[in-house]
């Protein structure tokens, strides 16, 4: 290229530019392929994230269901305990109101009662 004049170099540069412009469809295809590859990579990453999120959601829903079941069991247990306390209080009141409820107990009955109400 040392022997070429400025016009010749400019003409060679124009030819290269013209040749590149003639292949616009090739450049467009390359850009589309690159864009498609990037979009596909993004799509597959989003699909993986979605699958992981769905797995996390299923695990969280399982925990929520377990907590709800535990709360229901606790509620029923609390109701049973309250009912038993009420029945015991009613029995104590009934025994206090009976004739002789304030009389001292024999050693045998005192020991038996102590074991029952311990």
Structure write-up:
The chain has 118 residues and is mainly alpha-helical. The chain is 86% helix and 0% strand. It is built from 3 helices and no strands. The protein has helices at 6-22, 24-97, 107-116. The longest helix is centred in the middle third of the chain and has 74 residues, at 24-97. The radius of gyration is 45 Å and the shape is rod-shaped. The mean pLDDT is 86.
User: Nearest-angstrom radius of gyration?
Assistant: 45 Å
Q: Mean pLDDT, rounded to whole units?
A: 86
Amount of helix: over 70%
Low-pLDDT ranges: none
How many β-strand stretches?
A: 0
Major beta sheet summary: none
Distance between the termini: 112 Å
User: Strand percentage, roughly?
Assistant: under 5%
Indicate the topology.
Layout: H1 6-22, H2 24-97, H3 107-116
In brief:
The protein has 118 residues and is mainly α. The protein is built from three helices and no strands. The chain is rod-shaped.
Key structural traits:
single chain; 118 residues; 3 helices; rod-shaped
